Sequence to fold (211 residues):
Amino acid sequence: MKKRIPVGLKDYEKLRNENYYVVDKTLMIKDFLERGNEVTLITRPRRFGKTINISMMAEFFDITKNSKKLFKNTKIINTEYVSEMNQYPTVFISFADAKGDKDIVTKHIKSYFRSLYNDYDFIFKNLTRLETYDYETIIHGLINEKIELKHISDSLAFLMRILEKYYNKKVMVFIDEYDTPFIEAHLGGFYEEIRDGLSSILHNALKTSTS
Fold:
């Protein structure tokens, strides 16, 4: 028997594997690929399902996974785009929990990037001298207890660059709730303190993206 989706469950893999009701929106992947945009911004009201759909696309493209079972009997399987499954280095970032005061928001962002760098630790084994310097600078910024973001402004861009080098493929980056820390900063009165660091992380990553 299918289970109803509980409030707060936003992981596509869990929804599929634990037999919850899931509306098949996998043709969004086809639309996404056919558009061929360098950057796609999805704007919909709250509770529209944005996070689940982003999670779905990340699961589909992630080169480190085998998603054949996860997408079995979905509409995307019957299209030519099934060949794109698990073909791209993929980064999925969620700022949904970056809520609170300046320290909490900043710590959450740094913690998320530490987790990403830990997950992809294997790609940093054969860096050039200059890449090693950049890597060590970013790692120092991530583990530094000082509550600021300016020293990790290249963290996402650098990760993308090394992923592309390692796999020789363009990188898919999915960012969920990118505006949450900006909103929290505005409401909490620390917008000016966090704006430049957070904007640089996103701007540098978009500048790195060429496809």
About this structure: Residues 12-208 form one domain. The longest helix spans residues 102-119.
